[in-house]
Amino acid sequence: MEDSFLEELRRDFAVEATEYLSTIRDILQDPKSFEDPKMIEEACRIFHNLKGASQTVGYPRVSLLCQSMESLLSAARKGSRSITPSDLPVIASGLETLESLINGTDVPIEAVARGVEDLLSGKVPSPTNKTPQEASDAAGQAAAAAQEEHHASGAENSASAEVPEVEKASAEPEPQGVPPAAEEAPPIQPAERVDPQGHQDLQREHDDTVRVRFKDVEEFITLLEDLMSLRLYAAQKAEQLFSVASEDKSCAEARPVIRGLREDLSAMDRAIKTLMQKARDMGMIRGDWLLRFLKNSAVGLAIKLSKSVDVHVSGGDVRLDRRVMETLKDPLMHLIRNAMDHGIESPEEREKQGKPRSGTIWISISADGSDCMVTVRDDGRGMDPEAIKAKALKDGLISLEQSSSMGTEEALHLIFQSGFSTAQGVSDVSGRGIGMSIVREALDKIGGTIKIATSKGLGTEFSIRFPSTVRTYRGVMVRVGSQVFSIPSSQVSMVYAIKNKDHQAMGIAMGKERYLPAIDLKDLFGLKGNSSSPSKPQGVVILSSDGEEAGVIKVDQILGEHEGIVKGLGTFLGKVRFFVGGTILGSGIVLPVLDVKDLLDSIDRDSAPFVEEKTSGPKKVLVAEDSVTSRALLKNIIGSLGYQVVTASDGQDAWERLSKEDFDLVVTDVEMPRMDGIGLLKRIRSNPPTSRLPVIVVTSLDSQEQVKMGMEAGADVYISKKDFDQDKLKSLIWGFLG
């Protein structure tokens, strides 16, 4: 591993470790925290992550100490013992020792390790006689000492001399099959390739570059997000003023002023969004940083496990938001550890199976529109869904009934449950059933998804899709009783209204012999909603999981879509079930943002199973509409004819879907972000595979000039929303598709 890269990793580790230990200190301040399973789980995960990170940067004593602390907490997490007041001094001593090591002070770890062993074996702890209160005080003193002693150059300066030979080697060997030039390229090359236009020469680029701390960029983005919230609030007040002025004749003179205010706010909105994009661009870095980290870590891990593995990486020129990259770093390392420890066989075993003695792991990053893809693939033994179900059943993670009805994909995803592990024993690599659950939790934070493809004896591929940058949030507002919630629009397939009498025992009827499992927010949160009168409609939101309609939630009313900034719940609250954070409306009101994954997990699939009878090749219709309500209406109308309906949020989204899938008809709006309906029409007609595709335009733009423009662009039918008639639309679609 290059010295400069290792130093950069160690600096990052020092910052990361300080944040982690700060969280542990907060937990330790209140001894009762360890009575809460969630707090124990959080502390366990922190030590687990620190252990893996310290191994990567060559700090073996930090890793060993974290392993001891994790063993103690893991026993409590699994219920084999509990954390008692007598344990806290040992935990406090471990915390002090870790902080000293991370801050560069050479201190022994044996006393703490013995203390943990004594606790696990039931002996009286020996390292310290501190009371719980003294333990808390010690944690606070350690925090103060850390503030005074911390310096940016890294941590545990003396550790490199004590690294065993095998661990020294882990950072150095070049994996087989990878040209040395890939690692030894001059450091100036990545900077040169960042400029896609090639306009500037290298000297000009160097002269125009200023190093900015990423922390400053993050603070700048946070300030812009706060400014965006204030702008939304001001815009709403301006609209209220304009509404009053429009109705009150005495305010006629104020109307031009208010109109000017609205224009100024629109200009401010554009300026803030431009600044936000520039700031986010500043936080974008090349993917080769992440790939080099993963590659070097994988090589070192292979040596530790006595396995021969070639590691191939690609896609280093893809640019990612650093915040996203930092979030993904640990989860990807867990995937690689999983591949190394459980996937890649020993050289002898591979030879017996007719495979090359050296296994191979491929790690790649690619861009897909506004999203990114990371794949981790190995040519190992693959995964056995039946074995996974059997282990989950044995560990009490699923019931026998769930196991018998579980499909292959659902079985594979059991590996992401906390506590699941197929390791025969516990080591510093795996065995406690924590790592893979961290993968799912990290992806939930950034709106990512993961898919698994595996073949027994041939290997496994994990495909992760996530936004390349942190985006402004869009959500659907729903009301239950007097409480309003927000659901991420990206995870809403459609919304519509049904009557209580239409609810079926099998769930929500979505057509003939097709039902979706349902959950009522009123019942879930114990809220008072609408009466159960059959004549009173309820809103239904269809939740999407990995692009598939997976379930519904019933609410009293759907209020519409909104845009805003999502703020997390903070370190004090941490993770609260069913919620990911809060979003601020223009009025200044904070709405709770619902966690779709938690909602789907809470649905009782036994009482409301998903049943779908597929017909032989139904015709497919693509609906392009940026309004959630209009999109839902069109999908409902067209779906009632028995056609398969796919929705797109704008013209660009629709075109991307047309490029990947075959459709029999397109229904589109005109005014949409990114690409409007006219632009979509022109692309459809200029592309030979789609040039004869029927296109119906449904829009509020109904002047003769606009109709002419749409027809000239290639529309087969142009319908005004003002004169919209469901039966007419159905007849037209039936005429095209039969």
TrEMBL record:
<comment type="function">
    <text>Involved in the transmission of sensory signals from the chemoreceptors to the flagellar motors. CheA is autophosphorylated; it can transfer its phosphate group to either CheB or CheY.</text>
</comment>
<keyword id="KW-0547">Nucleotide-binding</keyword>
<dbReference type="InterPro" id="IPR036890">
    <property type="entry name" value="HATPase_C_sf"/>
</dbReference>
<dbReference type="Pfam" id="PF00072">
    <property type="entry name" value="Response_reg"/>
</dbReference>
<dbReference type="InterPro" id="IPR004358">
    <property type="entry name" value="Sig_transdc_His_kin-like_C"/>
</dbReference>
<dbReference type="InterPro" id="IPR001789">
    <property type="entry name" value="Sig_transdc_resp-reg_receiver"/>
</dbReference>
<keyword id="KW-0808">Transferase</keyword>
<dbReference type="InterPro" id="IPR005467">
    <property type="entry name" value="His_kinase_dom"/>
</dbReference>
<dbReference type="GO" id="GO:0004673">
    <property type="term" value="F:protein histidine kinase activity"/>
</dbReference>
<dbReference type="GO" id="GO:0000160">
    <property type="term" value="P:phosphorelay signal transduction system"/>
</dbReference>
<dbReference type="InterPro" id="IPR051315">
    <property type="entry name" value="Bact_Chemotaxis_CheA"/>
</dbReference>
<dbReference type="Pfam" id="PF02518">
    <property type="entry name" value="HATPase_c"/>
</dbReference>
<dbReference type="InterPro" id="IPR036641">
    <property type="entry name" value="HPT_dom_sf"/>
</dbReference>
<feature type="region of interest" description="Disordered">
    <location>
        <begin position="120"/>
        <end position="207"/>
    </location>
</feature>
<feature type="compositionally biased region" description="Low complexity">
    <location>
        <begin position="134"/>
        <end position="146"/>
    </location>
</feature>
<keyword id="KW-0418">Kinase</keyword>
<feature type="domain" description="Histidine kinase">
    <location>
        <begin position="332"/>
        <end position="470"/>
    </location>
</feature>
<keyword id="KW-0597">Phosphoprotein</keyword>
<feature type="domain" description="Response regulatory">
    <location>
        <begin position="620"/>
        <end position="736"/>
    </location>
</feature>
<dbReference type="GO" id="GO:0006935">
    <property type="term" value="P:chemotaxis"/>
</dbReference>
<dbReference type="InterPro" id="IPR036061">
    <property type="entry name" value="CheW-like_dom_sf"/>
</dbReference>
<feature type="compositionally biased region" description="Basic and acidic residues">
    <location>
        <begin position="192"/>
        <end position="207"/>
    </location>
</feature>
<feature type="domain" description="CheW-like">
    <location>
        <begin position="472"/>
        <end position="605"/>
    </location>
</feature>
<dbReference type="InterPro" id="IPR008207">
    <property type="entry name" value="Sig_transdc_His_kin_Hpt_dom"/>
</dbReference>
<feature type="modified residue" description="Phosphohistidine">
    <location>
        <position position="48"/>
    </location>
</feature>
<feature type="modified residue" description="4-aspartylphosphate">
    <location>
        <position position="669"/>
    </location>
</feature>
<protein>
    <recommendedName>
        <fullName>histidine kinase</fullName>
        <ecNumber>2.7.13.3</ecNumber>
    </recommendedName>
</protein>
<feature type="compositionally biased region" description="Low complexity">
    <location>
        <begin position="172"/>
        <end position="186"/>
    </location>
</feature>
<dbReference type="InterPro" id="IPR003594">
    <property type="entry name" value="HATPase_dom"/>
</dbReference>
<dbReference type="InterPro" id="IPR011006">
    <property type="entry name" value="CheY-like_superfamily"/>
</dbReference>
<feature type="domain" description="HPt">
    <location>
        <begin position="2"/>
        <end position="105"/>
    </location>
</feature>
<dbReference type="InterPro" id="IPR002545">
    <property type="entry name" value="CheW-lke_dom"/>
</dbReference>
<dbReference type="Pfam" id="PF01584">
    <property type="entry name" value="CheW"/>
</dbReference>
<dbReference type="Pfam" id="PF01627">
    <property type="entry name" value="Hpt"/>
</dbReference>
